[in-house]
């Protein structure tokens, strides 16, 4: 069984959310997404994986020179992403961010926007991104994380419900990073909501 199938409520909820997702998320997150994606190179064409592409809100913000693979576990979300790829070289694939269907060292960059704190196993999601990333490649990550030792009682109280229908609210990035020891933090910047959302750039160490 692929990991995302362990949470059928999450799969079903995102099918229901898909028509409304953009209305809630697009405008609020657009500028933070744009700033996060500015770290992608603009001089040399590369292979870029967008893991957890959702409805494709990143696509209009991407440099046109790269070859993109957009992967998501929800067909309804992915269908909404396809029209947003106009002008890009992009392939679309139904798949699981916690069990990527790619060989090691397949991509120059991996984009993880609002996916690490959504999946049931964040560590597995990041470790899979690191696995398919080439040595010296980078991961562009934008998501919401608790700080180490942050109590955040309301978020933790809501987490048992929110993790089943939309997203986790208890993920600590520093704990997730331990699952991928070959990744090095290049930058870590507050992005939204007083630093709850962070824009993080990671680089895979060369062996």
Strand residue content: 25-35%
Task: Summarize the biggest pleated sheet.
Answer: 7 strands, mixed
Order of SSEs: HEEHEEHEHHEE
Structural class: alpha/beta
Tell me the number of strands: 7
In terms of topology, how is this protein built?
Elements: H1 8-37, E1 47-51, E2 67-72, H2 75-81, E3 89-94, E4 107-113, H3 122-132, E5 133-144, H4 153-165, H5 173-177, E6 183-192, E7 197-204
Parallel strand pairs: 1-2, 1-4, 2-3, 4-5
Antiparallel strand pairs: 5-7, 6-7
Helix pairs in contact: 1-2
Describe, in short, the structure shown.
The chain has 207 residues and is of the alpha/beta class. The chain has helices at 8-37, 75-81, 122-132, 153-165, 173-177, and strands at residues 47-51, 67-72, 89-94, 107-113, 133-144, 183-192, 197-204. It has a 7-stranded mixed beta sheet with strand order 3-2-1-4-5-7-6.
Feature tags:
alpha/beta, Rossmann fold, 5 helices, about 30% helix
Please give a structural write-up.
This protein is an alpha/beta fold and 207 residues long. It has one domain: 3-Layer(aba) Sandwich (Rossmann fold), CATH 3.40.50. It has five helices and seven strands; from the N terminus they run H-E-E-H-E-E-H-E-H-H-E-E. Strands 3-2-1-4-5-7-6 form a seven-stranded mixed sheet. Helix 1 packs parallel to helix 2. The N and C termini lie far apart (32 Å).
């Amino acid at each position: 069984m692929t990991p995302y199938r362990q949470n059928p409520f999450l799969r079903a909820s995102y099918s229901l959310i898909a028509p409304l997702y953009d209305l809630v998320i697009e405008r609020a997150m657009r500028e933070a997404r744009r700033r996060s994606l500015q770290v992608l190179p603009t001089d040399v064409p590369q292979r870029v994986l967008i893991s957890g592409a959702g409805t494709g809100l990143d696509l209009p913000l991407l440099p046109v020179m790269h070859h993109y693979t957009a992967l998501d576990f929800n067909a309804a979300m992915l269908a909404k992403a396809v029209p947003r790829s106009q002008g890009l070289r992009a392939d679309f694939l139904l798949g699981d961010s916690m069990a990527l269907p790619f060989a090691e060292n397949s991509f120059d960059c991996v984009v993880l926007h609002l996916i690490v704190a959504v999946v049931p196993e964040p560590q597995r999601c990041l470790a899979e991104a690191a696995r398919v990333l080439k040595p010296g490649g980078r991961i562009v990550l934008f998501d919401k994380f608790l700080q180490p030792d942050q109590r955040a009682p309301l978020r933790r109280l809501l987490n048992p419900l929110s993790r089943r229908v939309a997203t986790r609210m208890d993920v600590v990035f520093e704990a997730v990073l331990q699952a991928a020891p070959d990744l090095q933090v290049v930058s870590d910047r507050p992005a939204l909501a007083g630093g709850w959302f962070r824009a993080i750039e990671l680089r895979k160490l060369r062996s």
